[in-house]
TrEMBL record:
Domain of life: Bacteria
The protein's name in its UniProt record: cAMP-binding protein
Domain Cyclic nucleotide-binding, chain residue ranges per copy: 29-114
Organism from which the protein derives: Algibacter mikhailovii
SUPFAM superfamilies: cAMP-binding domain-like (SSF51206)
Length: 188
């Protein structure tokens, strides 16, 4: 639980009493590799902090999934649109490795926002960070070549290649696995 406290304190330090209140709402969850955290059509009930593991966000397809996000240790994961609106998710979330999460329910998070001094500041800053990540990816898909997106991905997140199957990386940058193989040959 120390890692989540450090993460939050870097955003906006919590008093010990606010932290104790927030921590009392957290639930630890241990998940195996390839566990579905949220199924398409289900409503997101939790905001989760990854203390260990790799998670992907994707739209399942018959031929090949459309992967649009990866999250790692010390990052938050949720189907944020479903979480905010409490409506069914249009995508799934699954673990790619054994994963440990600390999660808080939507109702408990609202209670933290209402009862702590800086809960709303932390929530706003996390939402802004999620928006910036999403915006950067969208702009990259519109403005950069597949090879540039591949290279950018590894300059931003060098641990991707060791932990994520290439078919998911190809989907994430918007190309086929065969096209990714050609790019990798050209680069090497």
């Amino acid at each position: 639980m120390d890692e989540i406290r450090k993460y939050i304190d870097n955003i906006s330090p919590m008093t010990d009493s606010d932290w104790t209140f927030f921590a009392s709402k957290l639930q630890k969850v241990e998940l195996e590799k390839n566990t579905i955290i949220l199924e398409i059509g289900k409503t997101e009930k939790y905001l989760s902090f990854i203390s260990k593991g790799v998670v992907r966000l994707y739209i399942p397809r018959v031929e090949s999934d459309l992967t649009f996000g990866f999250l790692f240790d010390n990052e938050f994961v949720t189907a944020y649109d479903s979480f905010l609106t409490q409506s069914p998710s249009e995508y799934q979330i699954e673990t790619l490795t054994e994963t440990s999460l600390w999660r808080i329910s939507n109702n408990d998070l609202q209670e933290v926002y209402n009862s702590t001094n800086n809960g709303n500041i932390i929530g706003r800053k996390m939402a802004e960070k999620m928006f910036l990540i999403k915006s950067k990816r969208e702009l990259s898909l519109l403005n950069r070549s597949a090879e540039e997106r591949y290279l950018d991905l590894f300059s931003d997140r060098p641990n991707l290649l060791q932990q994520i199957p290439l078919k998911y990386i190809a989907s994430y940058i918007g190309i086929t696995p065969q096209a990714l193989s050609r790019i990798r040959k050209r680069i090497n």
